[in-house]
Amino acid sequence: MAKTILGALSLLVIISCSIPVKENTVQPNIMETNKKNLGNLLALYPKPMTVVGAEVEGKVNWLVVGHTGVIGHDRILISMSKSHYTNQGIKDSKRLSINLVSREILQKADYVGSVSGATVDKSEVFAYHIGENGTPVIDASPLTMECEVVDIYETESFDNFICAIVNTYAAPEVLDNNGKLDYTKLKPVLFEFPTYSYLATGEIIGKCLNLDKRPGMCAKEPMSADGIVRLSKIEVYPQYLDKYMKYATEVGEISLRTESGVLTMYAVGEKENPCKVTILETYASHAAYEKHIASEHFQKYKQGTLYMVKSLVLSDQTPLNPANKLNNFMQ
């Protein structure tokens, strides 16, 4: 009996070894994700909103353009539908201006994008002057680039103007203390194509290639004769305490990091009653304080927490020993 069983097992082994093994034709599992495939949607938005200026048949014309790009470090791309009246003027002169749109000129920029220069004279929509390279420059635009067209790449529906920048004009209020562009001051309007919406730029959230480091703090102004030392005593409704502290932490961090006149913003809560918060604030001058309370981040804090605050007392203080200066303490 044992021999019979052993013989049967041997036969099964021989048979199984003689059967060719089929390769696994099933594809490896694709990583599961909750992302939805939107197909070949162009999603590189938002983009800076611009108004292109050019002369067409001897007359200045303006056109709002949302499709711009960077080619290397010395070329930019302006992509414009072939149907636009402005294109022919650019092809003839080989030059144009690119004017960044601020909130102040957004309404006019929107208008010049809604009517055609072939039927409407748009030359006087903006106050302008002729730049050094011979193109119209919008006076109220915070930043304008005069460009020479070096190549034109045509697709089925678009003329794509590849341009070299000749001159760049920046308003003084968008420059930092070193005369360089400061995009936290410039704050250009952004354009989002799928929903045809205008967006605003936000705060700096970090420095490129340095995200493992704490964001740097700006250089601080010295305390002047009209500097302010203040205790802000705030009582918050208990149900809003966590939400309030998020607002307070954000405004303190941004203020200290970006405002040269904000010297100290140090918040503490009572151990017995954490809803009672006291903030030690010092400002280099009264002007620095006025600038602070007008800032976008402070207004976001102020308007966002109005209903959370039960009481607020602002108590200005006199330093007993001015030699013991308070410097850059973080909240």
Automatic annotation (TrEMBL):
User: Which PROSITE patterns does the entry link to?
Assistant: ABM (PS51725), PROKAR_LIPOPROTEIN (PS51257)
Q: What is this protein called?
A: Flavin reductase
**Which Pfam families does this entry report, sorted A to Z?**
ABM (PF03992), Flavin_Reduct (PF01613)
GO terms of molecular function:
FMN binding; oxidoreductase activity, acting on the CH-NH group of donors, NAD or NADP as acceptor
Q: Keywords for this entry?
A: Flavoprotein, Signal
Q: Which InterPro entries match?
A: ABM_dom, Dimeric_a/b-barrel, Flavin_Rdtase-like_dom, Flavoredoxin, Split_barrel_FMN-bd
- Provide the ABM domain boundaries: 228-321
Q: Which cofactor does it need?
A: FMN
| UniProt organism field | Bacteroides muris
What family is this protein classified in? Answer: Belongs to the flavoredoxin family.
**Carries keyword Flavoprotein?**
yes
Residues making up the signal peptide according to the UniProt record: 1-23
